[in-house]
Amino acid sequence: MTSHPLPPTPVPKIVVAAGVIHNGRLLAARRSTPPALAGQWELPGGKVETGEDPRAALQRELVEELALSVEIGDQLDGPVSGDWPLTDDAVLRVFIVDVAGPALVAKVGDSHSEIRWLDADSLMSVQWLPADRAPVEQLRSRLQSPH
User: Fold this and answer.
1) Bridge partners of 46?
2) CA-to-CA distance for 21 and 104, rounded, in angstroms?
3) Structural domain includes residue 50
4) Are residues 55 and 92 in contact, defined by beta-carbon separation less than 8 angstroms?
5) Rounded CA separation 114/97 (Å)
6) Which pTM was predicted?
């Protein structure tokens, strides 16, 4: 009997996102592109390039998209080996970015038409991308209510 090796399990593509928290509020970015996502809100981030470290990819994406230079913190624990499922061949890896200090300015870039800082009470006042809803709910406990 000849044994045939199993084909290698494909490594999922990794998309990274940042739960940027500053003064008890979460940074939300409204997509302007692509058309299918325009108008919906997301945690900022993007695709990890081949061979790129996910944290380095997130730092690069935050600088490119929002001119935001921050230190990437711990990974938010998702349900599938620490990640959040996106598609059959891609996962979302969310990192927490706690930013201390008096002022943090993020700028709207080509990918986004607006940014907002949302507290716990206003967190669900925007239409989040479906993939971001569960991580955003998990981040709620780290935010402050305005009352």
Assistant:
1) 16
2) 10
3) yes
4) no
5) 20
6) 0.86
Structural domain span for residue 59: 13-119+126-136
Q: What is the CA radius of gyration of the chain?
A: 17
Give the CATH number of the domain where residue 54 resides: 3.90.79.10
Q: How far apart are CA 54 and CA 15, in angstroms?
A: 8
Classify residue 84 as left (phi > 0), alpha (psi -120 to 50) or beta: beta
Cα separation, 41 vs 29, whole angstroms? 5
| DSSP letter for each residue of 66-116 | H-------PBP-BTBTBBEEEETTEEEEEEEEEE-SS-------TTEEEEE
pLDDT of residue 74: 95
Nearest alpha carbon to residue 26 among 106, 91, 113: 106
What is the mean pLDDT for each group of 10 consecutive residues in the chain (147 residues)?
65 92 92 90 95 95 85 94 92 91 68 90 95 95 74
Contact between 91 and 131 under an 8 Å Cβ cutoff? The reply is no
How many structural domains comprise the chain?
A: 1
- Phi, psi dihedral angles at 5 (to 5 degrees): -65, 145
Residue type, 90: A
